[in-house]
Amino acid sequence: MTKRPTATKARSCTGKIRHETRAKALAHLRRLIKRGYVRLSAYECKHCGGHHVGHRPKPRTRR
Ligand SMILES: [Zn+2]
């Protein structure tokens, strides 16, 4: 098995486009949404201090 120790960082930071500000991330997000990528969201990154656009976490199916 291949276990990646930095799986969380790799998923949420490395390999993603880094935006300096939330505004830039949101602008990019809007462009992607227009293309049909609806299930995305912009979030502040704990690892690099920038902002990334990524897939939304699975919607909680409560109730
Ligand atoms: Zn990051």
The strand line-up of the biggest sheet is 1-2
- Give the low-confidence spans: none
Which term fits the overall shape? globular
Helix content: 25-40%
**Radius of gyration (Å):** 13 Å
In this structure, how is the largest beta sheet organized? Answer: 2 strands, antiparallel
Mean pLDDT: 85
β content, as a range? 15-25%
Number of helices: 2
User: What separation lies between the terminal Cα atoms?
Assistant: 36 Å
The class by helix and strand makeup works out as alpha+beta
Summarize the structure.
With about 60 residues, this protein is of the alpha+beta class.
Q: Can you characterise this structure?
A:
- The chain has 63 residues and is α+β, with helices and mostly antiparallel strands.
- The protein has a domain at 16-55.
- The protein has helices at residues 7-12, 22-35; strands at 40-44, 51-55.
- It has a two-stranded antiparallel sheet.
- Zinc ion binds next to loops.
